[in-house]
Write a structure and sequence with these properties.
single chain; alpha/beta; Aldehyde Dehydrogenase, Chain A, domain 1; 6-stranded mixed beta sheet; 15 helices; about 35% helix; binds nicotinamide-adenine-dinucleotide
Length: about 475
């Protein structure tokens, strides 16, 4: 494999220094990434700014075709990307893992390529004609997390270029390589400078968020970093889409069949090893079905193999990095003092489950009898540990679900869909799922309320966030 380089102005640009990227399943170096500098960011922004002058005038249909070709290109290279993603991110190749993520990226690109924001006539009468146009903003800075390095890159980049912007993308230092490869493939289709990719440490982020030639930041990551970005971007009045952390609640009502919902609850909580913004992170269960729901969930979870994602039967991989592993361990140890460990927990730690003590493997953990106020309930674990809370009155469960600064998603589990929707309507979050959790799709806007973010992604509403409105009166 050729060494990875930055992608600036359609060229592969070497850097003086490289940094190591670890495979979280083995803790061994799986690749070297270019260590970009502030000068590299400036070069990338300059290239994107120059490319914008032409790209914004390319007819929309041609930009749509370019996005369709990106989808084809990803599909042609799907297996290579999936293997790289598993080695770098740790998620399994199979199940809801790397192949699924690349498939999702292809589907998202295909769907988004068909979107359009046509001019609207607001008025046409004797007093004149008023037209509403959507204009691209300019250079978009995309800053990525480490949990879905391909899918989230697609969510940022494709609507940006489709609507006539150009992009400088910065992946997480934990997962730089697959995103670099994706941008390299995009550059086989797009004119030079339309999409650039800079890898390096966290310090590159503030260079982007204060850069006067970047007109918009699209950021997916933690609430803390989102707040810094919001503040840092104020001086240059950047447009902003912030998709931040979640602490999604699920409320199980008393009429459910515990056995039937166990699989949905499990994957809602443990998809990508729980390292998913809109995973189910707090489970409120009615007293009438509490013990049975816990039992069925644990029974299902016990059957789910964890291990190195390159093995065929593995469906859950390791925590992606040591820092996150520490956060999960800390929260579980605190919860163990208060709750009842039904599965996993710190005493079951054996790293990769094979006894060779390598890899950031944290056992699937379910801890019952916790309450709001306990850290595992209040704070985002972003890992394979689920707190379960007993409730007696639905109003009380709704109040507890809302008693959190985050408001990304929430779910209601109930046979009676009308009742479930009534409960869902009271949840202070951007998405509500009934009898499932975390399902997102490219034709439905997705975003957080409260501290979980600003703006939405996907569908026409998400696309519109990559434009400024211009009204022409004639
Ligand atoms: P993070 O905030 O630590 O890092 C995200 C990115 O921000 C990285 O690329 C990092 O280099 C960069 N960064 C760090 N400091 C910066 C700064 N001061 N200015 C600009 N950029 C900076 O997040 P993470 O640990 O990679 O991801 C986990 C978090 O992301 C979780 O909280 C999760 O809920 C959230 N997330 C949200 C969504 C969503 O759509 N809402 C999706 C995925 C992840």
């Amino acid at each position: 494999m050729e060494p990875f380089r930055l992608i600036i102005d359609g060229k592969k640009v070497p850097t003086r220094q490289l940094f190591e990227v670890l495979n979280p399943a083995t803790e061994k170096v799986m690749g070297l990434a270019p260590l970009g500098t502030e000068d590299d960011v400036n070069d990338a922004v300059a290239a994107a700014k120059t490319a914008f002058r032409k790209w914004r005038d390319v007819p929309e249909r041609k930009r749509q075709v370019a996005c369709e070709k990106i989808a084809e290109k990803l599909e042609q290279n799907a297996e290579e990307l999936a293997q790289l993603l598993t080695a770098e991110q740790g998620k399994p190749l199979n199940g809801l893992g790397s192949r699924w993520e690349i498939g999702g990226a292809v589907a998202w690109t295909q769907y988004t390529a068909g979107l359009s924001l046509p001019m609207k006539v607001l008025q046409e009468n004797n007093e004149g004609r008023v037209e509403l146009h959507r204009r691209p903003i300019g250079v978009v800075g995309s800053i990525l997390p480490w949990n879905f390095p391909v899918l989230i890159a697609i969510w940022h980049i494709v609507p940006a270029v489709l609507s006539g912007n150009t992009v400088v993308c910065k992946p997480s230092p934990y997962t730089p390589l697959t995103t670099l490869r994706v941008v390299e493939l995009m550059n086989e289709i797009l004119p030079k400078g339309v999409v650039n990719c800079i890898t390096g440490d966290d310090g590159l982020g503030p260079v982007m968020t204060s850069h006067e030639d970047i007109g918009k930041i699209v950021f997916t990551g933690s609430c803390g970093t989102g707040q810094k970005i919001y503040a840092n971007a104020a001086e240059t009045m950047k447009r902003m889409t912030l998709e931040l952390g979640g602490n999604d609640a699920g409320i199980v009502l008393p009429d459910v069949d515990p056995r039937q919902i166990a699989e949905g609850l499990f994957w809602g909580a443990f998809i990508n090893g729980g390292q998913t913004c809109a995973a189910l992170k707090r489970l409120y269960v009615h007293d009438d079905v509490y013990d049975e729901v816990c039992e069925e969930l644990v029974k299902f979870a016990r059957k789910m193999p964890m291990g190195n994602g390159i093995e065929d039967d593995v469906v859950i991989g390791p925590v992606q990095n040591l820092k996150q592993y520490g956060i999960v361990s800390d929260l579980v140890e605190d919860a163990e003092k208060k709750g009842r460990v039904l599965l996993g927990g710190s005493k079951k730690l054996k790293k990769n489950g094979k006894g060779d003590d390598r890899g950031y493997f944290y056992p699937l953990t379910i801890i019952a009898d916790l309450e709001n106020g306990d850290r595992l309930v209040d704070e985002e674990q972003f890992g394979p540990a689920l707190p379960v809370i007993r409730y007696k009155s639905v109003d009380d469960a709704i109040e507890k679900a809302n008693d959190n600064p985050n408001g990304l998603g929430g779910s209601v589990w109930c046979r009676d869909i009308t009742e479930a929707k009534q409960v869902g309507a009271k949840l202070e979050c951007g998405s509500v799922w009934i009898n499932k959790h975390g399902m997102i799709q490219p034709n439905a806007p997705f975003g957080g309320r409260k501290s979980s973010g600003v703006g939405v992604e996907f569908a026409e509403e998400g696309l519109a966030e990559y434009t400024d409105i211009q009204v022409i009166f004639s």
